[in-house]
Structures are given as C-alpha cells and as structure tokens.
Amino acid sequence: MPSSGGRVNRGPAAASENRQAILDAARRLFTERGYRVPLSAIAKDAGVGQGVLYRHFPTRLDLAFAVFEENFAQLEVIAADPDAGAFGRLWERMVHLTVESAAFVEMVVDARRSTTEYTGGERLHALVGATLPRAQAAGLVPVGATVDDVLLAHRMVYGVIATVVAPADLAPAVERALHLLRRAPFG
C-alpha cells in the first residue's frame, strides 16, 4: 500500500500538541506582526489547518486569553516563592511578558469593555499584593509603595511599548522607561 508522504492525521491524540503549536505560533507572529496578523498565517506557522485553530480558539480574543493564561501560570509560580526577591522577579517577568505579548494586551484592552467577566486585572493585583509586602519587609522596596503604584508603572511601561513606532526603538524605550521608574518609590 502506498504511503501518503504527508503528515499523518493523528486526530484527538494530537490535540494538546496542536493547541500548544498554535499558541507558540501566535506568540511569535503577533510579536512580529501585531494583533491583526491573519489567523490563517498562525495556523500555517503552527502546521495545522484553520479548522484545528478554530476548534481550539473560536475567536482571536480566545487566543489572546489563552496566551494570558500561560503568562499568568508563569507569574503565579514566581509569586508563590516565599523569598523576598520574588517581587523583583515578578516585576521583571511582567515587563518581559508585556513586551512579548503587547499585541495580546492590545486585543484585550480593546475587548475589555465588552468582556466584563475577565479577571486578569484582579489576578495581577493579587500576585503583586502577595509579593510586595515581603519585598518591603526585607527592605528591597520602600514601605510607601502600593500595589496600585506598581500596576500604574506597569501600565506606563505598556504605554511605551504600544506607542513605539520603529521596532528597533522598542528595547531602548522600555529600558529608558524602566530607568525612570527605578527612581519611583518601588524601583
């Protein structure tokens, strides 16, 4: 019997691998090309058909929320560390993920008005709130800094990311903003 020579459809057995391939491709392409990249390009990059993509993520926003869930999983691991330095690691990872996931953030910000059930803001508040007091008790962060201060600084960093015109200017602009924020009460 002749072989098909192409990919073998493994059906449901490949579902979790396909889902992860889609998420990885989405991260990569949204980072490179912005959140308006065609979903067909994501499916192609992931090596799956568009039907598979839509089966996992019926909308572009569902895809963004899935990326955010992966991001939150990383942040939750950091916040669970009882070490006083967890706040600094959490902050650094938040900034990195915001740079990496800026297109997803933009999508969610656009959709937030109609997607009132999303609790990402509250979850982020809780993660910072869990780590900030330990850092303050260890003298790593001034006592006067609040969770709201940290989240405002995070939004400021996102603002820099969202308004940079030339991709080559992104890293220097974020670094300059972080330098200015280091002078802030929690920097």
UniProtKB/TrEMBL annotation:
Q: Which residues belong to any copy of the HTH tetR-type domain?
A: 16-75
One Gene Ontology molecular-function label: transcription cis-regulatory region binding
DNA-binding region in chain numbering: 38-57
Task: Check the record and name the SUPFAM superfamilies matching this protein.
Answer: Homeodomain-like
Is this entry keyworded Cytoplasm?
A: no
Keyword Transcription tagged: yes
Which keywords does UniProt give here? DNA-binding, Transcription, Transcription regulation
Q: Which PANTHER family match?
A: HTH-TYPE TRANSCRIPTIONAL REGULATOR BETI (PTHR30055:SF234), HTH-TYPE TRANSCRIPTIONAL REGULATOR RUTR (PTHR30055)
The name under which this protein is listed is: TetR family transcriptional regulator
Q: Which organism is it from?
A: Actinoplanes awajinensis subsp. mycoplanecinus
Phylogenetic lineage? Bacteria, Bacillati, Actinomycetota, Actinomycetes, Micromonosporales
